[in-house]
Amino acid sequence: IVATGTLAYVGTLENGGAAEFRIYNITNPASPALIGSLEINADVNDIAVVENFAYLATSGASAELQVVNISNSALPTSAGTYDSSGGEDGLSVFATSTTVFLGTAGGTGAEFEILNASNPSAITSIGSFEEGDNVNDIAIVGATAYLATNDNAAELRILNIANYASPSSAGTFNDGGNEN
Q1: DSSP string, 139-162
Q2: Which of 40, 39, 47, 36 lies closest to 73, judged by CA?
């Protein structure tokens, strides 16, 4: 869920034809009103909202990132998708107006991808990092990415992303084997 102003953007598990992405008016918290929705055909695992777009990390087999145009909150529309190199579920997403950071489930490809999303209908990879395990959450501060992972020896992975094309490990934190 992401709340901005008077709107809440909610993602749900795939539900056999019911819309997994929903927009609610939350002006009256005691009575939120559904004002728009979109069928994603996948679980929505995380949402980032920037300007007129919602970036969804999903379980879509060929669309781990789905971009939704939310400029008309009553009628959200698909604006583009991205198929992660490893083909694993999108688990986490962090976005700016032109760049998306996508975390995926551990698998055959890089679990952290940096994407050029300046054109949502033609998203391209800028760089990636092979974490080796699930990237469950992402925070970006300046030229540093903080990844919450399932790696028993590095539940927190810190990356230097000053050069998007070549992110590098700047450190890890092991909290004693408690997976995130």
Answers
A1: EEETTEEEEEE--TT-SEEEEE-S
A2: 36
End-to-end CA distance of the chain: 19
User: CA-to-CA distance for 26 and 180, rounded, in angstroms?
Assistant: 31
What digits encode the pLDDT tens for the residues 52-99?
999 999 998 889 999 999 999 999 999 999 998 766 899 999 999 999
Compute the chain's Rg from CA coordinates.
16
Complete DSSP assignment for 61-93: TTEEEEEEE-SSTTS-EEEEEE--TT-PPEEEE
**8 Å CB contact between 44 and 61:** no
Q: What is the pTM of this model?
A: 0.94
